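User: Hey, quick favor. My workstation is busy. Could you predict this chain's structure for me?
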Amino acid sequence: MKYAHFIFILFIFCCISCVKDKPNPDVKYLPSVSSRGVVILNEGSFGNNNAEISYLDLSENKLSNLIYRNANDKSLGDVAQHVQFYENHFFILLNNSNKLVVLDALTWKLKVTVSGIVSPRYMVFADSKIFISSLSQNVIYVVDANSFQLIDQVLIDDKGAENMMLVGNEIWITHWNIQRKQVFILNTQTRKMEDKIELPYYASHAIVQDRNDMVWILAGNKYQNRRSALMQIHPTTHQIIQQFEFPEEAEPIRLQMNATKDTLYFIQVNYDGGANHNGLYRMSIDDVDLPNQAFIAAMQNSYFWAYGIDSVSKHIFISDPKGFTQQSSIYEYSNQAKLLYEYRAGIGANQFLFTR
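Assistant: No problem, here it is.
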């Protein structure tokens, strides 16, 4: 009887084991963006054609990866640089694939690809047009946001246009060229360059506007021996109101403003993973000095690459790219810098776009 009982137990164990070993079906899950959530753009690793989209459902704290591949059965492209939402579509710039991709926001399906946009970086929507900066061309591309046609190329003085911001009927264009100290101003109605502002520092690359309408610009490139600085500029007189110079070893990037537009945020990157100048920093628009320590310090032997601030919960989402060789870690913090959750997104998570 003992032997028969042993055989019976062995049989049950084998059956259970066989079920566990059976490969799981390939479930292509596509989340709905009707709920409140975060689109996470994963740039991928350069040259590997592995850019992707992740989506975090904030009502369930559930993160889904490989959204584009699951919806379209192909790769999104190489180096996803920037994503924006407009008229029920997601617009995504692929820097190394030289294209703009437009997705239906309800289905994640590819609607159209706009080619011929070389090294696109960032985009601004104005008057139903999309103005797109280019890293390697001395033009601003203009795409009709309704017909998805490339309709114009506005010449600028040099290549290297970077982040842009709409100020009235003007687009202010930062210029991440280490030989340039200007911000260019483009008239959205005439689609012509109408002015440029001389800056005291080289290589401007980020721009925001505060609650008093003052413009803040971040400039510099540590690895090209260009000292970084944060500048405040009057929007109509174009005068430099004040400027804050960073230490030589600092590499501040990704300047943003909170929802009430009274607090500036930026990342300082230490690619060696050291404790100095490494984390997310913040400062009031009324501060007279730069912050001397991180609001949220990067973990040891790592660095932050991107972040987003939820205007509803005030939670802060930060990515650690893990060297662009594996899935990024996404950390969700409270506004008091308390770590709440951790997720795993795609390779090189570099932007958070909140949906409502």
